[in-house]
Amino acid sequence: MRYISTRGQAPVRDFAGVLLAGLAEDGGLYVPEAWPQLGPADWRSLRGLPYPALAARLLQSFVGTAIAPEVVAAICHDAYAGFGHPAVVPLIQLDTNLFVQELFHGPTLAFKDMAMSVRGRLFDHVLETRGERVTIVGATSGDTGSAAIEAFAGRARADIVILHPHNRTSAVQRRQMTTVQAANVANIAIEGTFDDCQDLVKALFADAAFRAEMRLSAVNSINWARIAAQIPYYAAAALALGGPEREVAFSVPTGNFGNVLAAWSARRMGLPVARLVVGSNRNDILARFLDGNDMSMRPVEPSLSPSMDIQVSSNFERLLFELLDRDAAATASIMAGFRQTGRMAVPDAAWHRVRTLMHGFRLDDPGTEAEIARLHAATGYIADPHSAVGIAAARALPAGHGVPTVAVATAHPAKFPDAIERAIGQRPALPARLADLFQREERFEILPNALAPVQAAVRALARRNAARAGG
Ligand SMILES: *Cc1c(COP(=O)(O)O)cnc(C)c1O
Asked: Is the shortest distance between the CB of 308 and ligand 1 below 6 Å?
């Protein structure tokens, strides 16, 4: 399986290559040169498999010959072994033809774990076969950092350093990062804002000598492996609800467009998907695009669903490339125009095509709290604010479409106790395996907002671990 860039000017790579590379050198995103295709008999053969086995089978079609099937199978098994539900991605019925699929049973209680847990292990394996080590650095305002730390903690070939703004994350978010005791993990609290943390990470990468010395690697959300690892749960839901003989629809609370792109990819591989609903909060660039071909940036406003507070959905470029019949030059020119003008000029024909499949939906904060309350009163189910947007979006699908709709739940409600308490008058409990989170010992360094001390801390971690690993 070979991968090409959406902008056409980067080297063609195999799966291992795109796993390590992340963003393509031309600024584009890697996509498969040809989509794997599964027929009805292939889908049927996946029905009833344990989730890790299903995930391994589908992931292998993207890995190709880059990694042996038994390695991919072992990685998927290991990645999901620590999840808090035996079905890994359980389906729950909320109404006639309305289901929720919970993607938040991983170590950090958010759906980023679905891909990150696999990606960390794949990364380690590829580095091992190449005899390389890397130092992963990233800045976080909360969620991405903890998923990355969980994924890389204890891996042999990577050290990970995460910068967070001191006293500016929630206590749950901070503790999910700082109570991980693995020797290859370092948390740095910067006396500054999230933007300061991001600027420091950029400065680390911009120092070419330091970057080479430490073999820096980024935590980013645009890696193809992440999309590939998110496709299997769409297949699991569809097969459980009668696929491939019966179509299903999915509703996805969306930020960077990675999750909904995975649903689109499952359909592209032959899974019968009738509709995709793209849920947004008040940051509704995608809803405006789907409603009226208006993809124009506006300032980001904070909401109850912070992981959907975006102004640019970076993974949209992968869909754009497909909508333009894989014309890389046209994709590059539209993306350049978007950067310059803040408005993406998607040709009308492409927009009409996407509208036959995707619906946009937006819900503001009062609407989100009302949906959490309504759902709880009607069913007893407690949805977090992100998931509530997706469930409301699923309910808003035109009536009588006649197929089961699955709203994916992307975070555990206990991550957002204040919003839940306002909506239903009670605070959701953390799952048992995290119940002692507030008793666990924390480990982090507090550093001033300056490059030199951060570089020294990164170097110290890498030295320590290289010495332990014997060189
Ligand atoms: C990241 C995230 C999203 C958005 O997913 P994208 O793939 O960026 O569209 C939604 N909900 C939660 C809880 C998230 O962490």
From this structure: yes
CB neighbourhood size of 426 (10 A) = 11
Longest dimension (CA), the chain: 64
Q: What is the domain extent for residue 389?
A: 91-109+226-424
- Catalytic residues, by residue number, are 112
Higher pLDDT, 400 or 22: 22
> Is the minimum distance from the CB of 410 to ligand 1 under 6 angstroms?
yes
**Ligand 1 center from residue 404 Cα (angstroms):** 22
Res 315 pLDDT > 60: yes
Q: Determine the residue of 254, 260, 316, 389 to mutate for testing ligand 1's pocket, defined as the one with the most ligand atoms within 8 A of the Cβ atom.
A: 254
* 253 C-beta closer than 6 A to ligand 1: yes
Q: Say if ligand 1 is within 6 A of residue 259 CB.
A: yes
Q: Is the peptide bond before 244 cis (omega within 30 degrees of 0)?
A: yes
pLDDT tens digit string along 105-117?
999 999 999 999 9
| Ligand 1 atom 4: residue of nearest CA | 255
Report pLDDT digits (tens) over 254-277. Answer: 998 999 999 999 999 999 999 999
Predicted confidence at residue 193, as pLDDT, reads: 84
Nearest CA to ligand 1 atom 1: 307
Q: Is residue 148 in a domain?
A: no
Residue type (1 letter), 215: R
Starting at the earlier edge strand, list the strands of the sheet with 273-280: 91-95, 98-102, 405-409, 248-253, 273-280, 358-362
- Specify if 354 maps to a domain: yes
Is 299 within a domain?
Answer: yes
Instruction: Answer whether residue 81 is part of any domain.
Output: no
Task: Supply the mean pLDDT for the chain.
Answer: 93
pLDDT in tens, 370-380: 999 999 999 99
Q: How confident is the model at residue 219 (pLDDT cuts 50, 70, 90)?
A: confident
CB 412 near ligand 1, within 6 Å: no
**β-pairing verdict for 158-165 and 185-191:** parallel
| CATH number (domain holding residue 233) | 3.40.50.1100
Is-contact 243 272, C-beta < 8 A?
A: yes
Residue 255: CB within 6 Å of ligand 1?
yes
pLDDT exceeds 60 at position 332: yes
pLDDT of residue 471: 46
CA of 265 to the centre of ligand 1 (A): 17
